[in-house]
Amino acid sequence: MLTIRNLSKSYGSVAALRNVSLQIPAGMFGLLGPNGAGKSSLMRTIATLQDPDSGSITFNGVDVATNKMAIRRTLGYLPQDFGVYPKVSALGLLDHFAVLKGYLNRGERADVVEALLRQVNLWDVRKRKLGTFSGGMRQRFGIAQALLGNPKLVIVDEPTAGLDPEERNRFLNLLADIGGQVVVILSTHIVEDVTDLCPRMAMICRGEVLMSGEPREAILAMRDRVWSKLVSKATLPDYQSRYTVLSTRLIAGEPLIHVYSEARPEEGFVAVDPDLEDVYFQRLRQHDAAPASRAAA
Ligand SMILES: Nc1ncnc2c1ncn2[C@@H]1O[C@H](COP(=O)(O)OP(=O)(O)OP(=O)(O)O)[C@@H](O)[C@H]1O
């Protein structure tokens, strides 16, 4: 169990994390938020790459701030910008990372490296230079290095951004297989990543936790409150001013809107089964509205 209590972090006048508290059990945990929400700041702080201004993080009862080396030994981290040496082969670089991770026995290291390259389906291309890999292959290589040393805590920061649908699926399947007794935190701004993979999640925006829990429950709580209608582009601003429009998607060039409302907003709206994207946008809209209402109060 990873326990985060009242964590805050600022860069100069930018408050990246504001009093963040989360309980993260074993299994896949999705951390969902728009760009600039503070996801990477939280990931880097958990990964001991930066200190918080206040608050604490414990992993299975061990305080992260005062036991950085112990945490690093149990940590696997795939950062958002994972650079590789383009002229080195996958086999060569993973072997190098394995040495750094403490696998000094050559035979044992060869076995571990082979097992990981097979797990991420890169064994057949192990001798190719990393510079020739596609984005998806690079990310799978990134997961292989993150899994060196059997980590108990795996942090994956925005891994699917820029992957095509097939590579994304392959990558998510790989993550799903890790699961088990390991805590895996997947930070993303892509709602489907969380829907497809995570039994538990949190949403953050502007450094604050908007919700945490099970996506299923959050979706159920929105039932009978999401309505859709195909409108014209000309009338869209009017709908946006009168209703809480959660999302707008173009269907053959015309906007299909999802509106949050406790009752049918007006003629022509049909009730839809909410999904996690509706939950996400509803929380973001609520959060956007909050500062104004707080000020008014
Ligand atoms: N080193 C830094 N110095 C100054 N400001 C920073 C630094 N790192 C992040 N920030 C700011 O802190 C806020 C949170 O950034 P962070 O990268 O943690 O968000 P994020 O959710 O990971 O977003 P993204 O998906 O865009 O990376 C943003 O306003 C960002 O501009």
TrEMBL record:
Gene3D superfamilies: P-loop containing nucleotide triphosphate hydrolases
GO molecular function: ATP binding
Signal peptide per UniProt: none
SMART domains the UniProt entry points to: AAA
Keywords in alphabetical order: ATP-binding, Nucleotide-binding, Transport
InterPro entries: AAA+_ATPase, ABC_transporter-like_ATP-bd, ABC_transporter-like_CS, P-loop_NTPase
Highest taxon of the lineage: Bacteria
Domain ABC transporter: 2-231
Family stated for the protein in its record: Belongs to the ABC transporter superfamily.
Name used for this protein in its record: ABC transporter ATP-binding protein
